[in-house]
Amino acid sequence: MKILDWYILKRYLVTFLFTLLILIPIAVAIDIAEKIDKFLREENLTLFEVVNDYYKNFIIYYANTFMPLALFIAVILFTSKLANNTEVVAINSSQISFTRFLYPYFIGATIVCVLALSMNHFFVPSSSKTRKAFEREYLKKKKYADKSIREFSLQLNDSTYMFLQTFNLKSNSGNYFSTEVYDGIQLKYQLTADNIRWNEKDSTFKLSTWKKRKIFKDRDSIFSGNSLDTTFAFTPKDFNYKNIMAQEMNSPELIEFIEISKKRGVKNLNVYLVELYKRTSLPIACYILTLIAVVLAHKKRRGGVGLNLALGISVMFIYVFFLKVAEVLGGVAGANALLNVWTPNIVFGGYAIYLYINARK
After folding, report:
1. Domain limits for position 172
2. What's the burial of 26, exposed, middle or buried (CB within 10 Å: 0-12/13-18/19+)?
3. pLDDT tens digits, 53-69
């Protein structure tokens, strides 16, 4: 049985890698055709930068994205070939149960799942940071240059709050800044400034035309000045609550960011929670998709590999559709992000178990 297990496992992994290597060049070719004009208009942009900073990380991102699709297609392809060559019939004739037949498939699914988990939680976010920086620099400069926030407030801890009227994320400067400390509902300390600028090199803020006020029981103490360099428990990245930021943080950083944001009173963090949860749910789907693919393809059909592939791709696109809908619904304020992200796996997991029970009979 070990020979058969190794034979199926080898076919599983080889076909998976082959399918992935077919899909990636297609994605790269489409992206090059789309962005070639933007690359050529940048006089200082070199071929090495395009390949090393953008397309190397582009391939890492899309290889990870295409893993479930490549896995599903690969299992259908080589299992259909086993069925057409009557190899599955020979295995059944040897009194090997369908459950035992699945054993090498699930070993392969485990290998791919572990690889996908490590990539999703650690490698892809780090890669995305470099790719997104390249996009902001050369592909989306105008859009990024206009990025600014207005009327922004942030709770730093149980008693401290900060306010900004405007802040430009490109120049790292803003106007009409204020931070306040309360004892219950009583104001105890206030620091205001007409202008604020972030110094990334020193990780400090420079305040211009500032005023500091300390409130006591019987008097107030007020100080003022033209310029003040100081630090706060926040940085400009805390002003930009966007999904793109979640994609650039590895999972420990993302978990820490979510916890800090909860303490600061940020109301809707579902976009970040969806990103965190799907990093685990997608790799786990390898088991579900493998089981569905084997059940659909293990019987010899009159239509051959083409019919099995058509059925499989239809199921796969339905799964992807439900996955995208679940992500959108999970990001809505008040929604249960964990339940929404895992709903496609729960539904298709039930479908996989139903197919398995019928196939085992």
Report:
1. 148-236
2. exposed
3. 999 999 999 999 889 88
